[in-house]
Amino acid sequence: MKTIFLKLLLIVSIVMVLAGCGKRSANIDLREGNRYASGFSLYDSAQYRVVVVYSPWNEGGEMARYYLTRDTSDAVEMTRMRGKKVMRVPLQRIGVTSCTHVGFLDAIGCVSELVGVCNPELVYTDLSAAKGQAEGTLNIGDAMAPDVECVVLVHPDIMMVSTYAQGDATSARLEKMGVPVLYINEWMEQHPLARAEWVRLVGAFLDREAMADSVFDAVSERYEQLRTRVSEWSEDKKPSIMSGQDFRGTWYVPAGNTYMGRLFSDAGASYRYEDTENEGSIPLTLEKAMTDFADADVWVGVNARSLDELAQIDRQHTMFRAFKTGRVYHLMRRSKPSGAKDFWERGVVHPDEILGDIISALYPDNFLWWEPVFIKQLQ
Q1: Residue 361 domain-assigned?
Q2: What is the rounded CA–CA span in Å between residue 320 and residue 333?
Q3: Do 46 and 132 have their domain in common?
Q4: 348 and 254 share a domain?
Q5: 188 within some domain
Q6: Which 8-state DSSP code applies to residue 22?
């Protein structure tokens, strides 16, 4: 059963990340300097650093509002704030439900604060320094259904959760049990740098906001440098790209305005669905995929480690031009036998590295100096 779960989780993750899901929040007043992300804002009030997480399903609506402070000694003020999410930073004990959360914590040097992790076997980052590892309580259950009793026992200052609907039963149960919940909905952002910018929100709770800002500034600068450089190469003819593969009769591809669609565009690729405005992935039949992508130059994001394996999954995969020329790539270079893949962790904070990887596949002769991070060509 565990093997089946891992495979299903991988498939769901691939569809979400490679196709891009959800509707981007709009018309939100963001703090100056919040350049890409629309799902949260940070600002200062008289005594608190205020963090607002907006609802992706209720335009302009809030999921939660947090008041962060370094000082809780004012009893009168704390009484006035009763019923609100007031937290003293830096938080010392963190629980997470997703490996992407580990990626954010690792980027600001706070993996040691982890006391509980869902499906730790799916985490690529070294967790040996985590508090939960030393305490013997690191595993707090399944990502889709955390063991609430285990969560309570590890006493987290906050539990980072990804939500997939406006009403989230697990989050409600955690809060009912006295566990504060921090909603991390970076996966709903469509721009790669918008997802990365959520590191700033995480940094605020660990009192590492300056470090988080520095990380994000460096990532966004490198991303824009790469995007600008490749735009000079792609003026004449852009290499065409395809992604995904057939799964039980359906081939999911990203719409043009999604996470991977934006990466394809910024990497200087010609993409069949680059002008589509779908809010999620586009389901195709195998026959339609073959019609649309038969002559694509490059194929990325397959769930196979060799051309033989890809052919065994479906012999019709061999009919694509990219397969015949050997320009097929997976994004699992940094992975473990347990199923852990750093694409989900480091990748969420470093879309600049994903962009560079895709550029290297599209323009190998121009990008010989690039050292691949996540991407690997199938042999």
Answers
A1: yes
A2: 23
A3: yes
A4: yes
A5: yes
A6: S
Are 273 and 306 contacting, i.e. CB atoms less than 8 angstroms apart?
Answer: no
> Which residues lie closer than 8 Å to 46 by C-beta, 6 or more apart?
none
Cβ distance 106 to 128 under 8 Å?
A: no
The reply to whether 166 and 252 lie within a common domain is no
| CATH number of the domain where residue 59 is located | 3.40.50.1980
Task: Convert the pLDDT of each residue in 176-201 to its tens digit.
Answer: 999 999 999 999 999 999 999 999 99
238 shares a domain with 214: no
Which class for 17: exposed (0-12), middle (13-18), buried (19 or more C-beta within 10 A)?
Answer: buried
**Alpha helices, DSSP H, located in 46-147:** 75-80, 99-107, 131-135
3-state secondary structure of 276: coil
Tokens of 7: 């495979």
With a threshold of 0.70, does the pTM exceed it? yes
71 lies in the same domain as 188:
yes
Q: Are the CB atoms for 140 and 151 separated by under 8 Å?
A: yes
Residue 9 lies in a domain: no
The rounded distance, in Å, linking the Cα atoms of 241 and 271 is 6
The string of DSSP letters for 208-273 reads -HHHHHHHHHHHHHHHHHHHHHHHHHTTS-PPEEEE--EETTEEEEE-TTSHHHHHHHHTT-EETT
In the chain, the percentage of residues whose pLDDT exceeds 70 is 87
Final residue of a domain: which of 177, 193, 218? Answer: 218
**pLDDT tens figures, 294-338:** 999 999 999 999 999 999 999 999 999 999 999 999 999 999 999
Show the domain range for 306.
233-377
Cα 327 to the center of its chain, rounded Å: 25
Which token pair is 91? 């938080």
The count of domains in the chain is: 2
pLDDT > 50? residue 128: yes
The CA distance from 259 to 34, in Å, is 18
Strand partners, 117: 96, 139
Contact 183, 164 (CB under 8 A): no
Residue 204: helix, strand or coil by DSSP?
A: helix
Residues 294 and 318 in one domain: yes
The residue among 187, 218, 249 that closes a domain is 218
Distance CA 109, CA 94 (A): 13
Residue 58 is assigned to a structural domain of this protein = yes
